[in-house]
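CHAIN AND CONFORMATION:
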Amino acid sequence: MNAPHSTALPVHRAIPQAPGVDNTTALLGEGYRFIGNRCDELGSDMFSTRLMLRRVVCVRGEAAARMFYQPGRFTRQRAIPPTALALLQGHGSAHMQDGAMHRVRKAMLMSLHTPESRARLVALAEREWRVRFERWPRQRRQVLIQEAQAVLCRAACAWAGVPLASVEEEVLRTAEFSAMIDGAGAVGPRNWLGKSLRRHTEQWAREHILAVRAGRPTDPASPLAVIAFHRDADGEVLSNADATVELLNLLRPVVAVARYIVFGALAMHAYPEWRARLASGDDTALDMFVEEVRRYYPFFPAIGGRANGPFEWNGVRFDKGDWVLLDVYGTNHHRGTWPDAELFRPERFAGRQGSGFDVIPQGGGDPALGHRCPGEAVTVELTKSALRLLAAEIDYKVPQQDLDVSLARMPAMPASGFVIQGVRPA
């Protein structure tokens, strides 16, 4: 008699186990290096542990990113800590959807990031930078993270169709978006502040959505109007709550680009020969420099997913509901992909054709098909534009300050925020 046919996936090897009953405290203490430290200790790019008393499989590297970003393989439901979800995405967002609902919502978001739309946003940001360049020589000093967040907040709101009416409103909105970003990787006061301020921002965004739906004149091609009147895969217009979430999810990531701009300024300070190349108008150098900034400096530490169904990878069976954390920082620093990974070397990108999974600061694969950030090209263009202006249009001094970037703090940033002074036209 033949044995009954089984559809079960074979298990070829066990996953290495990290020491400790639960490693939540270690994650909070080690930050960006938590997964990489254990991979190195165990001699494996995959291990199992418990975080918040839940079993999780942690993975890193290009092959792991390719596995993780296989379209439809993972859902983000129950995969992101609630403290981060409340600030970075919100319930009802495209990031938290799957299947047809995700594809239709993602297509709408992708339509807001055409080359023409990106160019308009970059032009608005450049105008704001130049307004500040005129102002800075009359001021004693500037904290670049604060200035960059204000520039990007004002530009993003104007681009989206929700322009800020006054300096006071600019200060308020910038503070709110900045607190959301800064609190997303924390537990305790930073996170509480971000959630508290987000409620004010949600009310402001909801009022704009409701006003447009009530007939307030607006550009029908503006992101505000597109979101307000978008119909999901079920044919229904977004609820007020979901439209509000998506409007915030369009604006907040633009403000978050300030961190890459500051990291780029830090790199220009550390490697002045590269600042000279950027100031000369060398676009190839600028492309390489920004890619290395995004690879080298810490942004998202990791991203989580829950398996939508059983699958086998690297000799291990994963079942539906299994929680997997992909090490974003560790993949960008993986020695198997990046020789001298801990060195800042923009020339490594000369002529490089990426796989889409080797450097993943904002996700991997095709953004139209999976969960890769739809605004990644915006991030690149805004960073390139800002660094070109800082290198070529002004001179400034970098006084003595604490420029340490702690990888235990999420999200990371130079401790001083990168202070400059003595600004004058170049």
About this structure: The beta strands are 46-51, 54-59, 74-75, 141-143, 302-307, 311-313, 316-318, 323-327, 394-397, 419-425. DSSP finds 15 helices and ten strands in the chain. The longest helix spans residues 240-270. The CA atoms of residues 191 and 376 lie 25 Å apart.
